[in-house]
Amino acid sequence: MARHKLDALPDASGIYIISPSSAVADPTALDRAQSRLSKMGFKVAIDRTALSRHQRFAGTDVQRLAAFSRAIKQKLPIVMASRGGYGVGRLFPSLDWKALENSGKRFIGQSDFTAFSLALLAKTGMISYAGPTACFDFGGSKTEILTTEIFCEAMRGELEILSFETADADSVDCRGVLWGGNLAMLTSLLGTPYLPKIKGGILFVEDVGEHPYRIERMLNQLAQAGVLGKQKALLLGGFTEYKLAAHDQGYNLKEAIKFIRKTVGIPVITGLPYGHTEIKATLPIGAKVGVATEKGMAHLVLDEHVH
Questions:
Q1: Could you tell me which of 87, 29, 74, 25 has the C-alpha nearest to residue 48?
Q2: In a 3-state reduction of DSSP, which class is residue 132?
Q3: DSSP string of 151-180?
Q4: d(Cα 242, Cα 93) in Å, to the nearest integer?
Q5: For residue 14, what are the β-bridge partners?
Q6: Residue 103: inside a domain, yes or no?
Q7: Cβ contacts of 93 within 8 Å, gap of 6 or more
Q8: Euclidean distance between the first and final Cα of the chain, in Å?
Q9: Are 67 and 59 in contact (CB under 8 A)?
Q10: What is the pLDDT of residues 120-171, one digit of tens each?
């Protein structure tokens, strides 16, 4: 995987961490994340309810809504989710989308946070980022250097092109709005006002703990709902932590992808370094990007200045 840089833009030097979904299981992970991000040159502040707990959630709905309000009023430019899980969608009817848009913050997270990023795009057109979360990516026993470097480059405006190996890619050279994230979260937004209406886009998806038949079922649902067929390309990230069964009889992820290719008819690219994986890119949801393939490689053009 290769990255090509532009000259650095003004430093994005501050991160405010909130917990919008499930409760943080290990408070020391948040401490480690703060320490590591600080050593990377970021000023880091943790919201006062980031370690709250109510049932399975990181505090009550009221507490987590208040965390968003504090996040957009404080001065640090990047707002990062501590983790994913479940729960941010419960807040959508009560979030002040206009205030979120006017804040100019750069929101970043993954998993359950996909729902927030897509809702933000649908409601405001605002770009946010699919990328690391504090606990998973910076709070563990070690950090993945590529994830860290790409995150820093993206936040500081230095990431121009993301190139990655692909073992199974259709030929494509196109441009469109990049959008997507966790497949289950995206699919859960069908039929709601929180799913962006993107035509001619470049859709990327990933998931964890989902058998290939469930992945196929969700992609098929997106296809039959008229979403997939309107896209210029489908990028597949990591699909991890699932087990095949004896009665699958040869059915696997490759077969699921083969079915989607046949039924939808848009270019499919595998190998995107994004998902519930140690190595993950930081991707701008809602930005206009380009994607092109050559033998064994794909190139995601993330900056408007590239021609």
A1: 74
A2: coil
A3: HHHHHTT-EEEEEEE-SSB---EEEEEEEE
A4: 33
A5: 43
A6: yes
A7: none
A8: 20
A9: yes
A10: 999 999 999 999 999 999 999 999 999 999 999 999 999 999 999 999 999 9
| DSSP 8-state assignment for residue 75 | S
Residue 202 domain boundaries? 161-301
Q: Rounded distance, CA 82 to CA 124, Å?
A: 23
CATH number at residue 77: 3.40.50.10740
Structural contact between residues 130 and 300, judged by C-beta atoms closer than 8 angstroms: no
Burial of 97: CB neighbours in 10 Å, binned 0-12, 13-18, 19+ = middle
Asked if residue 2 belongs to a domain, the reply is no
pLDDT tens for each residue of 178-209: 999 999 999 999 999 999 999 999 999 999 99
pLDDT confidence bin for 13, thresholds 50/70/90: confident
**Catalytic site positions:** 111, 206, 276
Written as six digits, the tokens of 209 are: 């703990």
Does 75 fall in a domain?
Answer: yes
Q: How many whole angstroms separate alpha carbon 277 and alpha carbon 137? A: 9
- Two structure tokens written together for 54: 């109510």
Are 152 and 168 found together in one domain?
A: no
Which uninterrupted H or E stretch holds 123? helix 113-124
